[in-house]
Amino acid sequence: MHKIAIAGSSGRMGRTLLEATTQAADMELFAALEKPDSPFLNKDAGELIGSPCGVPISSDFSSALKGCDLLIDFTRPAGTLAHLKVCLENRVKMVIGTTGFSVEEKTLLKEAAKNTAIVFAPNMSIGVNVTFKLLEVAAKILNQDYDIEIIEAHHRHKVDAPSGTALRMGEVIAQTLGRDLNKVAVYGREGVTGERNPETIGFCTIRGGDIVGDHTALFSGIGERIEISHKASSRMTFALGALRAVRFLADKPNGLFDMQDVLGLR
User: Fold this and answer.
1) CB under 8 A, 24+ apart: contacts of 13-17
2) Which residue of the set 2, 154, 215, 230 is catalytic?
3) Where in the sequence is the domain holding 247, given as residue range(s)?
4) Most buried residue, 199, 220, 224, 262, by CB count within 10 Å?
5) Is 157 among the catalytic positions?
6) Domain with 142 in it: what CATH number?
7) 93 catalytic per annotation
8) How many domains are contained in the chain?
9) Which pLDDT tens digit goes with each residue over 41-64?
10) Is the pTM of this model over 0.70?
11) Is the pLDDT score of 265 beyond 90?
């Protein structure tokens, strides 16, 4: 039985993780965690999903994680890094779905993984990670005379752009083509931009309503275009992927992994 703690348990993703964890036969909800100013502190976490479970929501990460196996964290970079420090102190593994990390912050995750086991992925969806593999195949074949654009859409509450998933799509394509995404990415166009540089990878970001997450990679050539898309209709897909990551880490003492490792897609 995996003893699981969930950070940001009262949020949209947190509630979905609560539901998935409490429904999984091999998972035990060990702790539900929130910020110190949360109005849900000390309430039964299960009440958030209509099924009381006897686990109170706490803001004391250090005490709550004692005896826990793993923390699932889909919060914000600053919060995740603070939680990481507590996990290292308590020898707790992590599954991190947080997006918006800087290059320097990602380096901190890599360093921490020398002492604990972490699955870090911008998108835990199994379907999205299969999409990454399809993009690698497509980029190998469409490596000449195709312009590449990535279009993503999310709900109005998302705070980072482009999404971590869109950036990962760009990284997969750029790496396959032998390009550096930091040098070839174009994040916006306005005014007289001149002709398109064929080496670039463009990003288009849409924010509105309650869109869970849509991503499309467009390979546009002369006389044809190929679109590889993934559309999420429920956050449950991310939660189920996170639980799969939990199971993957069960026998891992340390190391930094992603969903390609979890799914055996390397």
Assistant:
1) 13/74, 13/97, 13/235, 13/238, 13/239, 14/48, 14/74, 15/48, 15/49, 16/234, 16/235, 16/236, 16/238, 16/239, 17/72, 17/74, 17/239, 17/242
2) 154
3) 2-120+235-262
4) 262
5) no
6) 3.30.360.10
7) no
8) 2
9) 999 999 999 999 999 999 999 999
10) yes
11) no
